[in-house]
Every structure is written in C-alpha cells, then in structure tokens.
Amino acid sequence: MNNKILKSTAEKKRNRFTAFFVSIIFTGFGQIYNGNLYSGIVLLIIRSISLMIIPVYLQIHPGHDSLDLALSSIFFNAVIFIYSPAEALYSSSRVRIIKLKKCNSIFAYAVFIISNIFLTSLSFFIIMNFFDIREIRETSSILFRKGDRVLVLKLKKEGFQRGEMVEYNESGALKTGRIIGAGGDTVKQENYTFSVNEIPLGIGTFDENEMARLALGDYNKILSESYHKIKYPVKVDIEKNIPGKAEPGNLIKNGEFLIAADNRETGNFYRIIKKESITGRIEGVLFSRDFKRMLIKPYLTKI
C-alpha cells in the first residue's frame, strides 16, 4: 500500500493541450512540462542563437549581404516555432503519465519562463538595434515600389561603401539613394552618368532574363551601371540626355557622401548629404504585395 502511495505521488498525467499551448507562448516549455528538460533548454538556446548570430556575423563581415541571412533566420525560427509545440503535443499524447522530475516543479517552471523571456527580449533588442523594416513611400529607386517593405541594416557611419543603396533623412522625410562618392572623392556628373576621381562608372545593358529578375519594365530606358564590384540598374531618358558640357567636379568633404537616385529621368537626381543623415543600408525587399518582387536586392549582381 505504501508503495502505491509513493508511486502515485511520483507520477502525474500530462495534458497534451497544455503542453501544446505553453510551447507556443514559451519555446521549449512544453518539453519541460513533459519532463524533457534538456530538449526544452536546447530548443530555447538554438532559437536564441539563430537570432543573435546574424548581428555577430555582420560585425565580423560588415560587407556581407544580410537579406539572405535574415530570411534564413526567419525560416529557421518558424520551423522551431512549429516544431516545439508539435513535438510537445506528440510526446504528451504518446506518454500521458510521466514520472515527475525536479524540472516539473513550480520553481523550475518559473526559472525557465524568466530565462525564456530574458533571452527572447535580448535577442529582439539586438536585432532591433541592427535592423529596421521600412515601408517604401517614395519612388526615387526603380527597384522598389510604394508599399514594399525593405530590410534596412543599421551600420556605423564608416561602414557604408560606394555603390551601396542607403536610406537617409532629408528634412524629416526618409529617402533612398545610392552612394556614388565619399569623403575625398571628386565626382563629376554629365547627363545621367558619373565619373569618380576621373574614372567613369561603367555603363551597359541587361539582357531580358536579367530584366525579368529585377521585375522591371521600360526596357529601352534601363541601363546598367557598375561601381567596383556592384552592378545595378539606372533609369534614364536617353533622348533627353544628349551629350553636353560636363558639370564641374564636386570635391566631397570628409563626413559627406554624394547620393544619387537610380531613377535619373528627373533633373535633380543627386545631392550631397552628411553621413549623420544616413540611417542604414538597404538590403532588399523583405515583403511585397507582388510576390515576384520579394527578395529583390539593390543590385542585380556583384561582379
């Protein structure tokens, strides 16, 4: 009789729906609830690392594209988000009665929940200090449309490179443009083209497959411009831009950038801004109403 009493106090029935829902709220909690301490901790740690590893990697490799990394992280976290409650539901359905362990105490649950909240908050705090998701509200870039959500990587002001597309603040409005020149450069502009330190930027064309990848129209108005290892499209009105006298070169002061729009059909498509105006580097389209436009980056290829 005493053995039966001891057995009944050491075992408890698990509710499979409880295991499922607590795992949705707190990743790994369902595993702890089912008595699988290490599984719950591993899931929590893996999910946290998958979020925090991207900013760490970009600190080491600041020039690396982060759009693919961000999407991989989103996908991986979605898998864990689905797996944790699904596995907790399956385990509790398969083994309804478990032997209670130390991890099945109120104290252990509280410690895990607090740890979960702390790591989740820390992960999102780090992510939010490295990334922003912005809605495109102006059309100076031909690669993006109004309503597109783009991923913006916040970098130190020294981290921006020529040819990259950035977001900057102009009189309270957020705009996009491409860095053509930085401090110490002499930039000349003639019609729609630029030369930097007496070296003209490469101008060419895209084939139909490349244009389709960019989801762009107006084939006759799209040219390619290449800057170092970055190749990107620019839109020009060739009929209006007949050869003429080049403008005097602009000597860019230290702490300033010459920014140009990819859409160069308008007259005033470039400006000089201070580095403090730049809020981040645009990595590409994260979400769009047009599915074909998702994952478009600010360049076609890095050559």
Distance between the termini: 79 Å
Please state the overall shape, judged from the principal axes of the Cα atoms: elongated
Total discrete domains? 2
The radius of gyration is 27 Å
Helix content range: 25-40%
Number of helices: 7
CATH class membership of the largest domain: Mainly Beta
N-to-C SSE string, H for helix and E for strand: HEHHHHEHEEEEEEEEHEEEEEEE
The name of the CATH topology of the largest domain is: Umud Fragment, subunit A
Task: Reconstruct the topology from this structure.
Layout: H1 2-10, E1 11-13, H2 16-25, H3 29-33, H4 37-60, H5 67-94, E2 97-99, H6 106-130, E3 131-135, E4 149-153, E5 165-170, E6 173-182, E7 186-190, E8 193-196, E9 199-200, E10 202-204, H7 208-214, E11 222-227, E12 230-235, E13 250-251, E14 256-260, E15 270-274, E16 278-287, E17 301-302
Antiparallel strand pairs: 1-2, 3-4, 4-16, 5-6, 5-16, 6-14, 7-8, 7-13, 8-9, 10-11, 11-12, 12-17, 14-15
Describe it:
The chain has 303 residues and is α+β, with helices and mostly antiparallel strands. It has 2 domains: 2-131, no CATH class; 136-302, Umud Fragment, subunit A (Ribbon). 36% of the residues lie in helices and 27% in strands. It contains 7 helices and 17 strands. The strands form 4 sheets. Strands 3-4-16-5-6-14-15 form a 7-stranded antiparallel beta sheet. Strands 9-8-7-13 form a 4-stranded antiparallel beta sheet, with no helix packed on it. Strands 10-11-12-17 form a 4-stranded antiparallel beta sheet, with no helix packed on it. Strand 8 and strand 9 form a beta hairpin. Helix 4 (37-60) runs antiparallel to helix 5. The longest helix is centred in the first third of the chain and has 28 residues, at 67-94. The radius of gyration is 27 Å and the shape is elongated.
